[in-house]
């Protein structure tokens, strides 16, 4: 069995990597349409650069060079979604020297469209969205494409769109001193070469971020991102580089394209100086990582890239500059002597308690050597280096789970709890459920996440916590956090509605605590359980402090149980399809996109 979303190249790599099952599950995120325009435009409005993959004009698509190019601009004036199938791009200028203009000109002058891969990456929030489709000159451009001094307008006609794994994104923020400058200098010059220069080598060996483009003539272009600690890209010669491929979501769109066509492009932007390095060549996936010396253990395979063409900017290509906030906690160590860690992490933790919540859910409490600061609703990333009964070739194992507890003080806490649902075929969830013992050691790599009402903003007065399955964990932590901050006073608590969907009533995690908290809240917390796998006759006739009904969370349930829905801030977590469906319903029922908060890590 395989998903119709994948072409033969992707299926081949998934089989070699053993990720077919995961890929089928995650294929639910692959769509021929964008998210609703209000939601997607929120993401676009926060961007100052969009990345495009295009190819040089060539009669044989298999011989066309792939290039990855940035478009700089200001938020919604740079990119906006006109519908769920169309993105408008309007860069302020596209110089004659830009390879993108060269790649697009022949087709646009004949009023035809060209394949394009689009990457929208929010460095500050660690979000990534990819779109593949056809690029054409917009009617807004009035046919103008040759005059580089004038703005142009481009249309991306979407064929495939999907959110993507944000694991290895280094957090950066636009330097406020440059935010109001023109996006790009008036003129930009490039040098062309066929070999890497010493300055190119330095840039490659120092980078923590690269942008990667691939091309499958039968399905189109793809724009992607790779990240790691400085030094993760290695230079073998003036025409050969390679980098490790770490554990991701297992879909392998880029690597699948390389199975069909080896042509690829690599681009680096120096976020501190604005200089650009663009490479075009051929790439291949190497499965024997032992053939590459000093490669980190976390590497699962190697991407080898042969340089055929080089374009290096003679000066900055943008007036924008970015400040590094932190490296991704997922970045494997390249060299123990590097300074690219994340402060207090990694930190050793010890398993000190295991609690059975339901037949398939257990809570694991870890003890840290010092207080750790975290907010209710955030997630933690762990590395497990020694797991009895697990093939050593699969180690170390890195996993992310939402923290299901709230810290016991404003300083943080010395314990962390994760609630893990045992998943059929899941390596780590199965191991924890059947083999984890008290005293087991792990490494805490970091804590992150935006799905919390306790950040810098004032706690909203009315909350709606929606969850499906094990997606209840962040909302449970939020509920606990609200209780802890109220210090027993119900008058200071926000008005909270909790709606949880589960297949069976007995499978609801934290059920007793939820009922107790709802009862103690004096109706400040109202609880609704919707059970999809049991009929009304099979459910309890009456449950104190909760409403239990057969069905699913949808338009009818929301209108019935939450009549003041548009006035609430919504925290939504659950399976991918569950969340995507409910986002659309919530928008249709009048909830502002800014009031829908989700967290997803599809890896």
TrEMBL record:
Residues 344-460 form the FAD-binding FR-type domain. PROSITE patterns: FAD_FR (PS51384). Gene3D superfamilies: Electron Transport, Fmn-binding Protein, Chain A (2.30.110.10), Nucleotide-binding domain of ferredoxin-NADP reductase (FNR) module (3.40.50.80), Translation factors (2.40.30.10). It comes from the Eukaryota. One of its GO terms (molecular function) is oxidoreductase activity. This is Flavohemoprotein.
């Amino acid at each position: 069995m395989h998903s119709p979303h994948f072409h033969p190249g992707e299926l081949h790599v998934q089989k070699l990597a053993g990720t077919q099952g995961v890929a089928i599950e995650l294929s639910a995120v692959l769509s021929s349409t964008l998210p609703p325009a209000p939601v997607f435009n929120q993401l676009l409005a926060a961007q100052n650069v969009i990345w495009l993959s295009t190819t040089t004009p060539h009669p044989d698509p298999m011989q066309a060079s792939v290039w990855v190019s940035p478009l700089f601009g200001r938020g919604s004036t740079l990119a906006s979604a006109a519908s769920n199938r169309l993105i408008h791009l309007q860069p302020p200028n596209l110089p004659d020297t830009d390879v993108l203009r060269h790649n697009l000109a022949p087709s646009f002058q004949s009023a035809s469209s060209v394949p394009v891969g689009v990457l929208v990456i929010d460095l500050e929030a660690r979000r990534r969205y990819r779109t593949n489709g056809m690029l054409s000159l917009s009617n807004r451009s009035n046919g103008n494409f040759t005059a580089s001094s004038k703005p142009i307008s481009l249309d991306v006609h979407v064929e495939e769109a999907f959110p993507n794994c944000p694991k290895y994104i280094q957090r950066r923020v636009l330097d406020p001193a440059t935010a109001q400058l023109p996006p790009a200098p008036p003129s930009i010059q490039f040098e062309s070469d066929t070999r890497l220069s010493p300055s190119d080598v330095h840039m490659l060996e120092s980078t923590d971020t690269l942008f990667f483009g691939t091309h499958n003539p039968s399905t189109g272009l793809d724009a992607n991102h790779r990240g790691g600690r400085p030094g993760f890209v290695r230079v073998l010669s003036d025409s050969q580089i390679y980098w490790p491929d770490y554990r991701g979501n297992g879909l392998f769109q880029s690597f699948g394209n390389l199975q069909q066509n080896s042509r690829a492009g690599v681009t680096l932007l120096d976020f501190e100086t604005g200089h650009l390095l663009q490479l075009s060549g051929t790439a291949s996936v190497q499965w024997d990582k032992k053939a590459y010396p000093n490669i980190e253990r976390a590497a699962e395979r190697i991407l080898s890239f042969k340089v055929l063409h080089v374009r290096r900017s003679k000066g900055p290509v943008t007036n924008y500059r970015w400040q590094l906030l932190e490296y991704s906690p997922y970045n494997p160590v390249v060299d123990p002597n590097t300074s690219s860690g994340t402060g207090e992490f990694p930190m050793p933790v010890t398993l000190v308690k295991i609690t059975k919540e339901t037949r398939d859910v257990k809570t694991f409490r870890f003890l840290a050597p010092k207080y750790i600061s975290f907010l209710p609703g955030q997630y933690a990333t762990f590395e497990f280096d020694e797991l009895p009964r697990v093939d050593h070739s699969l180690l170390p194992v890195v996993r992310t789970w939402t923290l299901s507890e709230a810290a016991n003080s404003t300083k943080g806490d010395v314990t962390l709890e994760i609630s893990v649902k045992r998943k059929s075929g899941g390596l780590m969830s199965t191991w924890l459920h059947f083999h984890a013992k008290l005293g087991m050691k792990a490494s805490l790599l970091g804590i992150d996440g935006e799905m919390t009402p306790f950040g810098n903003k004032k706690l909203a007065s009315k909350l709606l916590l929606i969850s499906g399955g094990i997606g209840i964990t962040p909302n449970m932590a939020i509920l606990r956090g609200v209780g802890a901050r109220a210090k027993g006073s119900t008058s200071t608590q926000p008005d909270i509605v909790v709606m949880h969907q589960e297949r069976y009533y007995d499978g609801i995690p934290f059920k007793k605590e939820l009922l107790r908290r709802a009862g103690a809240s004096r109706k400040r917390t109202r609880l609704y359980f919707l059970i999809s796998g049991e009929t009304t006759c099979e459910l309890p006739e009456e449950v104190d402090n909760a409403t239990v009904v057969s069905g699913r969370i949808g338009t009818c349930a929301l209108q019935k149980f939450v009549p003041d829905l548009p006035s609430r801030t919504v925290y939504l977590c659950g399976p991918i399809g569950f969340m995507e469906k409910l986002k659309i319903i919530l928008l249709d029922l009048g909830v502002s996109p800014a009031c829908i908060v989700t967290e997803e890590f599809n890896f």
